[in-house]
Amino acid sequence: MLTVKIDGIEVKVEPGTTILEAAEKAGVYIPIMCHHKNLNPFGACRVCLVEVKGSPKLMTACTTPVTDNMEVITNSEKLKRIRKTLIELLLINHPLDCPVCDKGGECLLQDLTYEFGITKVRFDEKPNNSPVDHTNPFIERDIDRCVLCGKCVRICDEIVNVEAISFINRGVETYIGTAFDQPWNCEYCGQCMSVCPVGSLNNRVYLFKNRPWHLEHTESICGYCSCGCTVIIDHENNEVYRIKEDVYKGVNKGLLCAKGRFGYELINSTQRPVTAKVKDGNEFKDVDFDGALNTIYEKLSAVISKYGNDSVAFVISPRLTNEEAFLAQKFAREVVKTNNIYSLETINALPDGTYNDVESSNALIVFNIDVTESNPVLGYSVRVAGRREESNLYVFYPNYTPLKRVATEFYVYKPSELYNEFELFLKALDGENNKYSEAADNFKNDDKPVFVFNPYNPKDVEIAKKVLDKVSNVKLVPAKAKNNSQGIVDMGCFNGMNPGLVETDKGVELREGIEADKIKALIVLGENLAVRSEYFDILNLLNDLELFVVTDPFFSETAELSNVYIPVATFAEKDGSFTNFEGRVQSLHKAVDKGVKTDKDVIVELAKKFGTTLPYETDKIREMIEVENPLYIGVDWNGGIVSYPYKVKIDGDVKFEIKGSGKYELYPAYLRLHSGSYTRRSYDLSKVYGEPIIEINPEDAKELNVKDNDYLTIKIGNDSYKYRVKVDKKILQGAISLPKDFKETAPLFYEGSYLKVDLIKHI
Ligand code: SF4
Ligand code: SF4
Ligand code: SF4
Ligand code: FES
User: Fold this and answer.
1) CA distance 336 to 633
2) What is the per-residue pLDDT across 285-318, written as a single tens digit (0 to 9) for each?
3) 177 Cβ inside 6 Å of ligand 2
4) Hey, what CATH topology would domain 2-75 get?
5) Segment 143-177, tens digit of pLDDT
6) Which ligand 3 atom sits nearest the alpha carbon of residue 225?
7) CATH architecture of 288-345+485-638
8) Nearest-CA neighbor of 700 among 745, 736, 739?
9) How far, in Å, CA of 52 to CA of 50, rounded?
């Protein structure tokens, strides 16, 4: 340890600690501008200059490591004078439009201007009056306000690894821009904007809507994917104004993706109903909550007494919190007494590897998943690992993904070839000498190998199992889809599974149950079956149901088919917990109240009608879970990790099936901007990606005579589906990719995830 004195305060620090870090330890404040904890030191702004005893030169605290017995002065008159001049120099070109600038109130330059008492700039003020750039749909760029701290460039390069923006020109001509001033080739993560200390990069979704000092901040967990990012919900008067990261908290370490950061307007959406609806003949009538519950109670009781308990079925979505999911299955199993409980989740692959395992691994395989799209923050961790010089990252996927920049080898194969190729890799793990031998050796000889895969594809789970059989210390990372994909299974919302993954009697399969007229009442909590290809055909079978209940924040395509619809809360309107892909249980907190009930209200109040009291308070439900769910005994609800009984489970050999007989191989894409029915309700996300688009290789496009934005018809058997086109050289010739989570693609993917199709130019 080294001993350092900062303004007379002695601290002991590790070698390599900077003066800034030592000062922080000593509780001494040093102003900063270009420094950011998560980025490499840069030393550009000089605002953090300090005096070091014995040194004739001033030092930048953020870049200078301490030495033993160093004595530092951070707050002399001389330093104040220099810092003040530095700020004044920045203000020469900086437009003083603070009253309208969206950063007002949280701008470092503004703060430092106040701190140093600058009321007048001694130098000639020369604003540049450059035009404000609105080419990025989420980020406004005003280069005149830029202080050239480089944080945006560095975060896009060092962490996001996209390098969409950089310093352009030299000297006084320098500005932050895109290559050749072209539109941003960007992931829309907003990371650059989040670190900008001034109003140069602003959030367009939030622009001019509120002021930071009006906002209340509620910490919670993102409601989209299974990464489980900590978010700060900024709100006032029950309106959500923006969602931000907390640099110091959460598994996401201050990073968010486009969905989590910009996809929040759906919470405030004026399309959200606040009143329940009950179908009367062919028309829906608005009813109050109790009226809707009475209808459900009466019809459900009638169905049970006429057809028996097994005639009732529940579909439960991962949007429910653990607490809600637990109550939902309890209501189904103990009040209705049915085993017909479904979710679209899997028990074949359970959490094993963590972010830390991914980031610290030097040998990773990402198999058949574009994790940068499906689970963006997990994707950052893979990039962190991949960037390390000594690491080996091998990616197997049908097209190039952003991991190409950091992968040691990126193996691109059409779906029909991918599994055969991986079989060769598996053989190389067994010692066979083939083209994968070096990669296989690197992988199996590493002390912390990691395998990231798609847990919903049984063939991929089988592959994961084979990897585990050969490399016993591998950490498997099943990249689950939704915010509480894991939690709802843990809570027993799976056919044949009680809470804690304890096997129980299976109910009838949903499709067969409905087809065979065994299921007469269906209660769908939060799931929009219409966008889920797996359930798509069921929608056509629901007319014969005697009761069809849907809860959803929106009057979804599925809700339109129901007899009773109850609008419910989004993640921002409730308390509880979600369990992420690591098996980490994290609490969310209610930020706003949109005047609707939660799924918990629906379940608890409905149970009351049946004469059963279920607990309502989060603590009480958790007490019950801890008793009834062996996996959650003593769990820390604020970040604890659950230990699962196995990693992967698969029976027998799984055959890879690619249906159809066309010329092109179609495979599903999972998007960074869209993941189902919630994101489609976001105006800004839909502005960027509003409909499913076929991605096609340039050669194929030439042959078909199509260009960007033309339409192609996919023909499979007698069915045809029309979609817009994007030509992209990352796609292999003879393959096409199309996103899965749209209602327009649900009927197509119902036929299978991988299809051979023909393409016809749409005239
Ligand atoms: S939004 Fe993300 S990808 Fe785009 S420039 Fe900013 S940091 Fe880079
Ligand atoms: S745009 Fe913002 S973050 Fe980027 S260099 Fe300018 S001031 Fe710094
Ligand atoms: S990575 Fe997932 S959890 Fe994180 S902000 Fe994006 S959607 Fe939300
Ligand atoms: S904060 Fe140290 S040089 Fe900018």
Assistant:
1) 26
2) 999 999 999 999 999 999 999 999 999 999 999 9
3) no
4) Ubiquitin-like (UB roll) (3.10.20)
5) 999 999 999 999 999 999 899 999 988 887 888 88
6) 2
7) 3-Layer(aba) Sandwich (3.40)
8) 736
9) 6
